[in-house]
Amino acid sequence: MQNSARNVTVEMMNLSEESKALLEGIPLLDVIMMARQHRMAPDRDYSQAFNIFYKKFRTVKGWTRSDAHSLRYDIVNLGREVNDYLKRENLIKSKTDFSDNQRFVISSKIWALRHCARTCHPIIHSGNKYSYWDLVLELDCDQYESWEGYSDQKLKEIDEFLISHLSPYNYKLLSYRYSLKDGKFVRRKDVAEKFGFNCETTAANYERRALEELHESLDEFLALTEIA
Questions:
Q1: Count of CB atoms situated within 10 Å of the CB of 47
Q2: How far is CA 24 from its chain centroid?
Q3: N or C: at which end does the chain have fewer Cβ atoms within 10 angstroms?
Q4: Distance (Å) of CA 228 to CA 51, 52, 104, 106, 210
Q5: How far apart are CA 105 and CA 82, in angstroms?
Q6: DSSP 3-state assignment of 179?
């Protein structure tokens, strides 16, 4: 990306007066990051985009429930204007910028494994398929603009850690389930077929046991996989 969103000001964006009024008292960078995370219109369903923005900033702005209806159009329009500006200035990445970047997708699977190792709960279907969006939500402005995923060296270190802290069976299962080698979407049904489980529930139970083993080294794993 050519510039940094940290340098953007409201005056530079050529916003409508209604959008400028909405932004008063709200950190502009917060709004820019919401757009980058595709949580504002037009990238998100208009009703969802409105609800996300309204809930996040209603306390800051002192909005009450009775304000919601009158604010709906202005908030959706603000999302359009912010997105348009970021696209013009090459300050926002498209969905394919993430999904077509294999290293970033694999990194997102590792991030999903971090989350599941904390709770020892197996990953859900949608989380496995779209986990790169979960990772984008974790990035700050600088990371969004410069981080392309874990380096090849870091990926090697993470793989070696998992090999040394998991049984061979659990390593194989988690590597496949979380697509740590190629980032491709894997269903629980696929896990059951590959490992010879009689049903998806059995596959989930084995996944949980593998996560419990990784949980025993959780602090080390979290430290190793922090985003630099």
A1: 11
A2: 27
A3: C
A4: 32, 28, 14, 16, 27
A5: 26
A6: coil
